[in-house]
Amino acid sequence: MPGGGGSSAEYHIRCLSKSLAIAGRHAVVLNHRGCGGVALTSPRMYHVMHTDDIHTAMAVLSANYPNATISCVAFSLGAVMLTRYLAEHPTDSRVSAAVAICCPFDTRVAFTGFDKHTIFNDCVFNPNLTKVLK
What we know:
Helices cover 44% and strands 10% of the residues. By secondary structure, the protein is mostly helical.
């Protein structure tokens, strides 16, 4: 799972998917609703605290590949969603292994830094986040 605003087009997601394919594994990327150039096809937008999409993806994977072992890797705000999903579904998630990379465990604290005018925020972080959210 990519971070907030991300999709399967993100560089780190493509690299991970390629590495998994080389290792003979299959990769599935959960694109966030309406982010990263993905069309918004429902009346509900992406929100980091909604885990319904993960639950639906797991149900579809389980129905189509009942014997598959499911491992998850999530980045940043995607990691927030994944850890929340696993906490909400401790026994019925079908996830056998999970890795949360760069997970902001307190999103309120993490988001307070977005509005601060720093060289990093003004020139790197906010322009890139805005681009993928558009």
